[in-house]
Amino acid sequence: MTIAARLRSALAAQPPAELLVGDLTEADASAAKPAAVLIAITERAEPGVILTVRRDDMRTHAGQIAFPGGRIDPGEDAVQAALREAWEELGLDPAEVAPIAAIDPYHTITGYTVTPVVGVIPPDLPLAPHEQEVADWFEAPLEHLLDPANHDRQSVLFQGARRHYYQIEWNGRRIWGATAAMLVNLARRLRW
Fold first, then answer.
1. pLDDT per position as a tens digit, 174-185
2. Which of 47, 54, 93 is nearest to 70 (CA)?
């Protein structure tokens, strides 16, 4: 069975109740701005996930690891926005992406409701980071990212309350916050 077929089958099932809904569960999601990210999974014997490293001089989330993505423009749906953003940030040709599903939205502390779009891409595409947005990109093993043993739950005092978040370490890189939460949700959806 191909990775695309496995993903389609797993993501068609009813989502589990224990999905993470957002950074601040008490926040009003109705006022959030819509955004989308692409969880690009490489079609190889050991699938990987494409992640970006934001530039250190960015206004928000400087230096953080993220999926390619951003705001949903008027007239776009989540899939169109995720594909456009991946094209703009990495030069990932939308024709190379086989979209599988738009999955459970995640509400960020910065006021966005982010819809992750899972898609499959061929391995070893010649990606080119946009010099004004992306410092670097890398491919992390899907198996590592989905393994609950690698989902390190952390806490911090924020706005007078104890807040929890996840981080996933891989190859000296720290994936945390909303990106890690969306990976935790994907792992809970797939249950591989």
1. 999 999 999 999
2. 54
